[in-house]
Specification:
It comes from Frankia casuarinae (strain DSM 45818 / CECT 9043 / HFP020203 / CcI3). With about 190 residues, the protein is an alpha+beta fold. It is built from five helices and eight strands; from the N terminus they run ααββββαβββαβα. Strands 1, 4, 5, 6 and 7 form a five-stranded mixed sheet that branches. The protein has a three-stranded antiparallel sheet with strand order 3-2-8, with no helix packed on it.
Length: about 190
């Protein structure tokens, strides 16, 4: 079984601050965030992968000027999704974790992106199946999605033989996140 570090730089207080800011910006999602705040108040590090029954993960919604969204092909599952994953022990913020994951997973040039804000654009709660090989029971991810803008698709992503990327219309993104991205693209004047 792999050894996991329990030290994390993103504290539970920092996560609570992000959650409360998100609730203020998205009051209709208070019920979704309430359990995260309670877990962060009373439990171990909420950003540590080993924290059960739930922990925080991050992903990056990277959009081009024409509001196409970057997706990568996950080699282990052959599923297209936005770059993301678990928060590392050396991440100093959730926003930084999302950007770091985009750099590592999709080859995104950190200097080529502009954050859409300091709060998550969307938060999704999803159940993750048990992974016996990793010693992980079924658990919950609070997936914090941060929005990033790029001025040029070709300059934003380094070429890589191991990473396949594509740019899709926001309507192709499922769930609440897809609806939010579609609305944002329409508000930007890119009505389809």
């Amino acid at each position: 079984m792999p050894v996991r570090s329990l030290s994390v730089a993103v504290t539970n207080n920092a996560v609570i601050g992000v959650a409360l800011g998100y609730i203020e910006a998205n009051p209709d999602e208070v019920d979704l965030m309430r359990s995260l705040v309670v877990l962060a108040l009373h439990g171990p590090s909420i950003t540590a992968r080993s924290t059960m029954p739930a922990h925080v993960t991050c992903r990056a919604a990277i959009v081009s000027p024409d509001w196409r969204v970057l997706e990568i092909l996950e080699p282990s599952t052959a599923v297209w999704r936005m770059p993301g994953g678990h928060v590392d022990a050396d991440d100093s913020s959730l926003l930084g974790a999302a950007l770091g994951l985009a750099a590592r997973r999709a080859g995104v040039e950190a200097d080529a992106v502009i954050p859409g804000g300091i709060l998550p654009f969307d938060v999704e709660v999803r159940i993750v199946d048990a992974a016996p090989i990793l010693g992980e029971p079924e658990h919950v991810h609070y997936d914090m999605t941060y929005l990033f803008h790029v001025e040029d698709r070709s300059l934003a992503v380094r070429e890589s033989a191991t990473t396949q990327v594509r740019w899709v219309a926001p309507e192709r993104i499922s769930g609440q996140l897809g609806a939010k991205l579609t609305r944002a693209s329409q508000q930007a004047g890119l009505v389809r």
